[in-house]
Amino acid sequence: MKNAHQILIRSLKEHSVLAEEDLSGICSLTHTVREFQPNEDFIRQGDHPELSALVVSGMVARYHLLDDGSRQYLSFHIAGDLPDAQGLFIDEMDHALCAIGRAEVAFFPHREMLRLFKRRPAIGFSIWRETLVDAAIFREAITNNSARTKPGRMAHFFCELFYRARVAGLNDGAKCILPISLTQLGETLGMAIASVNRSLQELRASGTMDFRDGELVVTKWRELKQLAGFNPQYLHMKKQSLI
Amino acid sequence: MKNAHQILIRSLKEHSVLAEEDLSGICSLTHTVREFQPNEDFIRQGDHPELSALVVSGMVARYHLLDDGSRQYLSFHIAGDLPDAQGLFIDEMDHALCAIGRAEVAFFPHREMLRLFKRRPAIGFSIWRETLVDAAIFREAITNNSARTKPGRMAHFFCELFYRARVAGLNDGAKCILPISLTQLGETLGMAIASVNRSLQELRASGTMDFRDGELVVTKWRELKQLAGFNPQYLHMKKQSLI
DNA sequence: CGCCTACTTGACTTACTTCAAAAACAGTGG
DNA sequence: CCACTGTTTTTGAAGTAAGTCAAGTAGGCG
User: Fold this and answer.
1) In this complex, which of A66, A125, A234 lies closest to B147 when CB atoms are compared?
2) How buried is A28 (Cβ within 10 angstroms: 0-12 exposed, 13-18 middle, 19+ buried)?
3) Would an 8 Å CB–CB cutoff place B77 in contact with chain A?
4) B-contacting residues of A 2-61, CB under 8 Å?
5) What pLDDT sits at residue A15?
6) A119 touches B: beta carbon within 8 Å
7) Residue B2 has pLDDT above 90, yes or no
8) N or C: which end of chain B has fewer CB within 10 A?
9) How many angstroms separate the CA atoms of B3 and B8, rounded?
């Protein structure tokens, strides 16, 4: 397992500039690491967390639980992401977090982080920035689920995760681990399971990508992007020209 | 016109605790106020703003412009909101802002704000918090546009705006100014104009509310909330029990 | 091997979109 | 004041995408 501090630093450096003292400040944070099984919740709606989570390995997701018991997935997070940085300033969780596949998550105490932000504002600013990119991803999800055709929105979803994993250095060439079921895909994109399947087959037939057994393979990135209307600008990465 | 500093302070106090020195720090910020006509853009996709906007009066909205020229509205903002606080840390705008109805907007220089955050971290934290509530609103919009029936999502949209306006002290009893067209409502909720109209008529027929001529009247709040599945917890206001 | 879960497929039904046109309304100029 | 224009809202009818329901297949695991 890679060191949690290093994972966080790598991820923050993706978009922010940090001084030597900021890095050592981050490394001074205490933390614990826990492993979670597929679908295991680690923060629930209504919780008042005092720790902030960092994805160390695997994938986690945020979701809303509706009155009728149905689920709406809101976002997916990979190694380096801080999926609940909002807990730093918002007392009560309005959504839950669970592992997608097996995942390792590091937890940092809010108290220590806030103290660090006061001492080294640049660290706070870089994590603030991270939460703002998060918000940009949510905005894109609104547009995706509201304004695109079903196959289009599925393509866009795959594009985003593929791109983010690529930036994080997690892809194996054209392959990307994505341990998500079709049912979950439906609960993410707002479509019925039968539709998910048919849209997926349409994407397969397009020859641009394949997704099966929790693995995404992108064979024609440019065409897939086109088909999805994907423009990575909203992810606000420094290396725009990556792929 | 009310003083922009006072409007900002009132709004931040809605969820954060600020010391006397923080308040005077906020009041030391220079700003300009501009008035915009209905549908007038004041920040465009791709811009690199150096000022942060505060809604002083009226309503503004954020939206994505898609490749095919269609629009997806992302959020609506009323007096006291900072609709582009993200510009503080994210260089390039991934969405645009426009006035809905006539609106007055105050602009504060990023440079001054960042300097203030370093001197008085609590101010930065309160605005950070504001951006996190923003993100919570986006998350709810994902769920709304993906998991609810068309009339349900329209009801939820009205509930949220009514509630937020009420908290901000902008409602006139059961009435609330909402200068938005049915077309825009469709571009917000991801539904065709014809559907918007029919869903609206369904809501009218339910006897819980009416919306016409840019004015929302809520006659049965409890029933409307019920019908919408609206739970204001995600807005993270201090006064939960308000309505 | 049998059970469970995840995926796939088909048939049916209904919601919603699209298209088209009418009605209501606001603004403009004679 | 009223005709003219453009915009927004409303209504109707037709077509279609996608949801629901139901059954069948495939893969993983004790």
Assistant:
1) A66
2) exposed
3) no
4) none
5) 87
6) no
7) no
8) N
9) 9
pTM of the model as a whole: 0.96
Instruction: List the helix and strand counts (H, then E) for chain A.
Output: 8, 8
Q: Which residue of B has its CA nearest to A68?
A: B229
Delineate the domains of chain B, giving CATH numbers in brackets. 4-141 (2.60.120.10), 150-235 (1.10.10.10)
The values of phi and psi at residue B236, to 5°, are 55, 45
Contact between chains at B236 and A133 (C-beta distance less than 8 A): no
Distance B196 CA to D4 C1' (A): 30
- Residue B19 CB coordination number (10 Å): 11
Structure confidence at residue B32 as a pLDDT band (50, 70, 90)? very high
Residues A242, B132, A185, CA angle at the centre, nearest 5°?
A: 55
B239 pLDDT tier (thresholds 50, 70, 90): confident
* Token pair 């955050």 in the structure block, residue: B117
Question: Strand B51-65 vs strand B96-109: parallel, antiparallel, or unpaired?
Answer: antiparallel
Backbone angles phi, psi at B14, to 5 degrees: -60, -30
- Start-to-end C-alpha separation, chain A: 28
One DSSP character per residue, A45-68 reads TT---SEEEEEEEEEEEEEEE-TT
Q: Return chain A residues 140..199 having CB < 7 Å to nucleic acid strand D.
A: 149-150, 190-195
The distance (Å) linking the CA of A161 with the C1' of D25 is 30
- Collect the ranges in chain A with pLDDT lower than 70: 1, 240-243
Q: Provide the 3-class DSSP secondary structure of residue A36.
A: strand
